């Protein structure tokens, strides 16, 4: 991960660290590495989404481990310096600053994070479509609903999950959502 961190400009690295801290503090549901990666690539840096996700996971592990061990800023920076592969100076400076400013808040919320082992729902989009024809059938006129769920997994990575449903399947899906809503109103 240290090799990949060297590629990331300081301002983008600082933004990534801020997003990770906010995620660990439950202020945002996750880190949108795809969007951040696109912006980094637009600035002229050649880094893949997978590599950026690895960096984000490493930093998330670093901050959450430091929080669970209740490390001070100096203890964290000292432990970073004693690692096998040393981080670039700009990265250590950013980590020092972010941890100094917001590290204590993570330590407080770390107990709550231990209970969250499933992903978090972020957004849902849907659209109605009609299949007009195919290679094997000239006239389908078959309506369907495409649903895209945006979720943040426990590590904070935001992904989209899409699926299609027939109209009867969508009606059943909608009915189940109405049942959940009515149960939630009683709580």
Automatic annotation (TrEMBL):
One of its GO terms (molecular function) is NF-kappaB binding. Residues 120-187 form the COMM domain. InterPro entries: COMM, COMMD4/6/7/8. It comes from the Eukaryota. Pfam families: COMM_domain. Scaffold protein in the commander complex that is essential for endosomal recycling of transmembrane cargos; the commander complex is composed of the CCC subcomplex and the retriever subcomplex. May modulate activity of cullin-RING E3 ubiquitin ligase (CRL) complexes. Down-regulates activation of NF-kappa-B. Inhibits TNF-induced NFKB1 activation. PANTHER family: COMM DOMAIN-CONTAINING PROTEIN 4-8 FAMILY MEMBER, COMM DOMAIN-CONTAINING PROTEIN 6. Belongs to the COMM domain-containing protein 6 family. This is COMM domain-containing protein 6. It comes from Emberiza fucata.
